[in-house]
Amino acid sequence: MAAGYLDILRARHAARLLTGTLVGRLPNGTGPIAIVLFIRAEGGSYTLAGALAAAYGLATAVGQPLLGRAVDLYGQPRVQLPAAVVSALGMVLLALTGLGSLPLAYLGVIVAGVATPPLEGGLRALWPSVLKSEDRVHRAYAMDAVAQEIMFTVGPLLVTLLVSLWSPAAALLVINALGVLGALSVVLSEPSRTWRSAPREAHWLGALRSPGLLALLGSFFFVGLALGSITVAAVAYADDHGRESVYGWLMAALGLGALIGGLAYGARQWAGAPEKRLRVIAGLLALGYLPLTLTPSVPVMTALAALSGVFLAPAIACSFIVVDRHAPRGTVTEAFSWLVTTFGVGAAAGTAVAGPAVELGSTAWSFAVAGAGGAAALVVLLATGRLLAAPVRTAAVVTGSENDRNGAVEPGFSSGHKA
């Protein structure tokens, strides 16, 4: 496993692209956390904090596929860096406004969300031209999922550290400044500057004309809902125990569990259709969320949080392969951006529901939202099994990658589709 990941990282540009993308995505990965902590510090209620975090998530959901399609049409540098700058300015507006003007606060989070650059989808579009073989790209997907969990482990701790050293407003500003630097590193790299999408069939639905992709997105909406609800539920749990640091440890434990699960998943090559494998992983993910409703003591709850995250990275890594198999030709960045979008919409729904669940019921009720989300994700995968069993084989069938016109990838492999 380690040797396989090192082989990928030794490829020219790979380490820079992965690191730049992770740093560039820090604002998006920690945005809901930073918003909730900032609004609570300003004296806002859980409901208001959840509503602003939900607005940010919904705005991201709107912007990602639009910007992803723009990347497929116009290339990465023309879209990614300007979007990162505008997104950061939106968070600056929130930090300066606080709760002094709610319309401006909502405007800030909406601008920040809509302009979030599609770095995640962009990286997966670049892997084929950098790694040049299907097996290495699939391993890169697993490494990508593991690296995300490192970010989701370190990100909450970084936010809480910045809050404790300075203030929640300072945390918003620093995180977004880092995001702009990460995006800058990516777009200045040779693979990003030279990448071009494969020719695409003109269709207003774009990537969404794939039934299998729609089925996957429906399932991962509920995975996002589960994760979004945990963001608010963990803050409420920390308040119940009178220690702000508990929140950071719970979120870090969740990320650590996913990191361990991702490493284990990437340690071997898996036989059989990834769509069937994803159903098993989703079932185990749903089971992992249910014990959180017990809300036991802090040490036990931290252990349960880690356990609940074990199957998250494997589910994400497997979903990347499924997207790759079902995305129509020339829509690779857009297709992966739609996956980010469904997470955003689901997370927004989760934060919006979990806030009132705390205030009308209890902290346990907000964690129950996560369990219900995991169960719903599994139900969608089971109900759409026939759609997922048939990868796109029409206009998406190609003989090379998005960059194969330059001879960058072995024949027979497409970054936009795996037949």
Automatic annotation (TrEMBL):
Residues spanning the membrane: 46-67, 169-189, 210-234, 246-266, 278-294, 300-323, 335-358, 364-383
Domain Major facilitator superfamily (MFS) profile: 212-419
Listed name of the protein: MFS transporter
Chief localization: membrane
GO cellular component: plasma membrane
Compartment(s) where it occurs, according to its Swiss-Prot or TrEMBL record: Cell membrane
InterPro entries: MFS, MFS_dom, MFS_trans_sf
Pfam families, per database record: MFS_1
Membrane topology listed for this record: Multi-pass membrane protein
Keywords from the named record: Membrane, Transmembrane, Transmembrane helix
SUPFAM superfamilies, alphabetized: MFS general substrate transporter
